[in-house]
Amino acid sequence: MKQILLVLSSIVILGCSNPHTFILNDIEVNKYFISGSINHAFKENKIDKSPLIVINGVPFEYNKKQDTILLPLKKSDILNLEFLNKNSSRIIYNEKENAGAIIITARIQD
Questions:
Q1: Positions in the chain whose pLDDT score sits under 50
Q2: Is residue 20 within 8 Å of residue 39, measured between CB atoms?
Q3: What PROSITE patterns does UniProt report for this protein, alphabetically (predicted)?
Q4: Closest CA to 101 of 65, 86, 109
Q5: What is the rounded CA–CA span in Å between residue 23 and residue 50?
Q6: How many angstroms separate the CA atoms of 3 and 35, rounded?
Q7: Cβ proximity of 77 and 109 under 8 Å
Q8: Which residue from 74, 80, 92, 96 has the highest number of Cβ atoms inside 10 Å of its Cβ?
Q9: Which residues of the chain form beta strands (DSSP E)?
Q10: What pTM did the predictor assign?
């Protein structure tokens, strides 16, 4: 019984401790281009599991309950990727946003 509880609690803790997987609308090689940067920022405690995403100044709406988030960008569209810590994102964007922010500057499509 203790082993079952230990396994279940481990699954819950590990499952809840990782950020979403963010993928790009790109070829298979570049699909996970920004996931490494986002995971690094998560490990450094800059962002939480469900950060605010801002693309060219516009907040990107996504379902925070899903594990995989598809961003409507390709690797070649991304010019800059920055992270705002929890306090900065709360001050700049909304006092309710406590999970940090990912700021993406992208090439404007014609």
A1: 6-16
A2: no
A3: PROKAR_LIPOPROTEIN
A4: 86
A5: 14
A6: 33
A7: yes
A8: 74
A9: 21-24, 52-55, 58-60, 68-71, 78-84, 101-106
A10: 0.77
Please answer whether residues 75 and 24 qualify as being in contact, where contact means their C-beta atoms are separated by less than 8 angstroms: yes
Residue 43 CA, distance from chain mean position: 12
Which pLDDT does position 17 carry in this prediction?
54
- Interatomic CA distance for residues 28 and 94, integer angstroms: 35
Q: What is the pLDDT of residue 55?
A: 94
Which run of H or of E encompasses 36?
helix 35-43
The tokens for 41 are 């920022």
Cβ atoms of residues 52 and 97 within 8 Å = yes
Q: How many whole angstroms separate alpha carbon 67 and alpha carbon 89? A: 22
pLDDT of residue 14: 43
Backbone angles phi and psi of 80, in degrees to 5: -155, 145
- List beta partners, residue 78: 106
In the 8-state DSSP scheme, what is residue 49?
Answer: S
Element containing residue 80 per DSSP (H, E): strand 78-84
